[in-house]
Structure formats: C-alpha cells, structure tokens
C-alpha cells in the first residue's frame, strides 16, 4: 500500500478544503507514492514522536496538529519544528496532518467530545459557508435522464439527508454551428432550435472536477452550455463545534464531576454556575472561543472548549457557563478516533498509537 492510498481515503472523509484558512493540513513531508509499512498516530508531531516511529518501524506519522504551520525558510535545526522535520526526512518518514478539516466534519473531533459525554440529537454548532456550488446545464430532452443520472453518480444533488436532488425546467435552445464545428444536432451555417431541459443541482466544491468530467462524458453536445454558481448556503454537516442534549438534566456540580471523569481532568476552569440544571451542551475541541456567540444562540447551558484568556471569561455575561478543560484534554481522543477510522477501512494494515505524551502543559497538585 502507498501513502496516497491512506491520505486520499482520509481526505475523502475530511477534504482539505474544509480546513480553516490559517491551517496547513495534508502531506507535509514525504512522497505520496512511497510504500508505507506502518503508520503511527499522534496528536502532535515532535522529535520524540519521530523517534517513537523509528523504534516501531513506522514510515508514516499521522498527527492532528501540523508540525509546520507557516513557511519554513531554512532547515538548520534551530528550533523543534526544524529538528522534527529534519529527523523525519533523514529517516524517510512521511508526515501527514489532519487538523481543522477533521475538526469541521460530523463525526470529527468535536463529535468525539460530544459522544464521550453521551450527548443526544447532535448537530454542528457553526455550519460552514462557501463550500457548496450549483451547476446549471442545458441538455436536449433526448439525453436528460442519462446526463442527470451521471451527475447524481458523480456526487451532485446531495442535500442533507437527501440525494438525487435536482430542479428541471423545460424550454428550448437555439444555436448555429459555424465553420469548424462538428455538431451532433444540426448543420453548419443553419440555426437550430432544440427542445431542452435546464438541470440545476447543488454539489460540494471538492467534487467539482469529477462532476464536470461526468457531465462532459454524458452530454451529447460538442459545446456544452453550463454555468457554475458559488453559494452562500451553509453546509449542515460541515463546520465548527458540536451541540447536543444530555439524556437527563444535571446539576452543575454533578456535570462537572462527569466532565472531569470522562476527560480525565485534573482541573476545570469555568465561569460561575447558573441557577438552573445543565441540559444542553456545546463543545469544541481546541481553541473554540470564537464559537461562544453560537453556543449562546443555540441555547447551550455550558460551552466546553480550551485556551480561554482571563478577560474572555467575562463574555459569558451570566448567559452560559464557559468551561476550559485544556487544549490537549479536549482533543485527547482524536488519536483513537483516527485509529478507528483507519482500521475500519484498512483492516490488515498496521496502524499504531504513539506512546509519547505530547501535552506540553504539566499540573502540580
């Protein structure tokens, strides 16, 4: 098996265009056509993790956090990022990161947090915009069913829990083939009028190439009349954070105890408890403070995330509980999530969890 077999599978689940603009997910080091022996999964990629991969005979490290966020101008080992990359290259170990694109899918990092707490009726906290497009194509009525079916098979027309969605309008098209044309209908120099159907379908932008290939392959015209529109619609299954309901409301103190137990926490930094039980819970792995307004608007009683600064806790304003459980702690189950995903797809492939604790924060108690 080659590295690209694994990375293409992962990017089918969490496409790279789902990542945030500041992120750097994908294959950071290595040749996608290289054969892979074993893969090591880690939350972070550090020198110690690369050494762990060497000892375990792994030539691919799949981490949540990218070791390289911004461009490297030099590789002389002056910091841990450069040293890690150099060590990986010297030992022919590929580095792959699946970060905010994994955060932003249903069943991703925040969903894992919600599952750990047993939340029901889960949904994306802030659905993403700008990921959907609409294809409009004009097809002679003799070929409408064929073209539409090809577009469906390529992934177009999938909206939420429905597929094969399209809107079709009957009309007619006119055209006149010029010199050099090879029309499937009509003759050079003569205007034609053809009964046509306008087909409109929504599709996720990462599928555009395969959808257009299917359209051109199935359409009878030499020159296909079509246009593409970028939509502002939100994608209900892609976005940041998650929200859901507890099976039964809980008093704040009891919920804190549950949270501490499920996430193996030594401490919870939180705002003042509200004078009501906790029923609706919002979560976001990593630094999720940007979602506070979404959590409040969604009716959450508590928002669980990480990396809150002192003054940001005041933003709760008595409307919600903010609970900061730590960055590593909020994402600690990401490794098991990736392990499960890969093992289900590649049952006979050796994929291991690192034994290195990469949490840079220690607690004294």
Automatic annotation (TrEMBL):
Gene Ontology MF, one: metal ion binding
Concerning Gene3D superfamilies, the annotation shows:
3.30.70.120, NIF3 (NGG1p interacting factor 3)-like
Summarize where a divalent metal cation 2 binds, as residue positions: 64
Instruction: Report keywords, A-Z.
Output: Metal-binding
Record GO cellular component, one term: cytoplasm
Please verify whether the record's keywords include Hydrolase. Answer: no
* Coiled coil spans: none
Oligomer and partners: Homohexamer.
Q: What family classification does the UniProt entry report for this protein?
A: Belongs to the GTP cyclohydrolase I type 2/NIF3 family.
* Protein known as: GTP cyclohydrolase 1 type 2 homolog
Q: What is the lineage of its organism?
A: Bacteria, Pseudomonadati, Bacteroidota, Sphingobacteriia, Sphingobacteriales
């Amino acid at each position: 098996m080659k590295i690209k077999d694994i990375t293409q599978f992962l990017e089918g689940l969490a496409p790279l265009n789902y990542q945030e603009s500041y992120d750097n997910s994908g294959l950071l080091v290595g040749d996608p056509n290289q054969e892979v022996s074993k893969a090591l999964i880690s939350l972070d990629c550090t020198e110690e993790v690369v050494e762990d991969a060497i000892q375990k005979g792994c030539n691919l490290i799949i981490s949540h956090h990218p070791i390289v966020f911004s461009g490297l101008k030099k590789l002389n080992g002056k910091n841990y990022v450069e040293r890690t990359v150099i060590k990986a290259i010297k030992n022919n170990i590929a580095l792959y990161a699946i970060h905010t694109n994994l955060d932003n899918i249903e069943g991703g990092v925040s969903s894992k947090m919600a599952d750990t707490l047993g939340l029901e009726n889960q949904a994306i906290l802030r659905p993403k915009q700008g990921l959907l497009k609409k294809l409009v194509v004009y097809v002679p009525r003799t070929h409408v069913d064929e073209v539409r079916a090809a577009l469906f098979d390529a992934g177009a027309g999938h909206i939420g829990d429905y597929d094969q969605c399209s809107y079709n309008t009957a009309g007619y098209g006119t055209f006149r083939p010029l010199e050099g044309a090879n029309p499937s209908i009509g003759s050079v120099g003569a205007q034609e009028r053809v009964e046509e159907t306008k087909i409109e379908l929504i599709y996720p932008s990462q599928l555009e190439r395969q959808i257009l290939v299917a359209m051109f392959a199935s359409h009878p015209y030499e020159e296909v009349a079509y246009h593409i529109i970028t939509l502002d619609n939100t994608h209900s299954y892609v976005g940041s954070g998650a929200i859901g309901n507890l099976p039964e409301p809980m008093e704040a103190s009891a919920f804190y105890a549950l949270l501490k137990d499920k996430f193996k926490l030594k401490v919870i930094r939180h705002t003042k408890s509200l004078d009501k039980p906790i029923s609706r819970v919002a979560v976001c792995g990593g630094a999720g403070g940007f979602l506070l307004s979404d959590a409040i608007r969604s009716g959450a009683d508590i928002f669980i995330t990480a990396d809150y600064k002192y003054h940001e806790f005041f933003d709760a304003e008595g409307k919600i509980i903010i609970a900061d459980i730590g960055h590593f702690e909020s994402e600690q189950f990401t490794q098991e999530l990736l392990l499960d995903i890969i093992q289900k797809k590649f049952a006979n492939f050796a994929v291991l969890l690192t034994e290195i604790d990469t949490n840079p924060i220690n607690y004294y108690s």
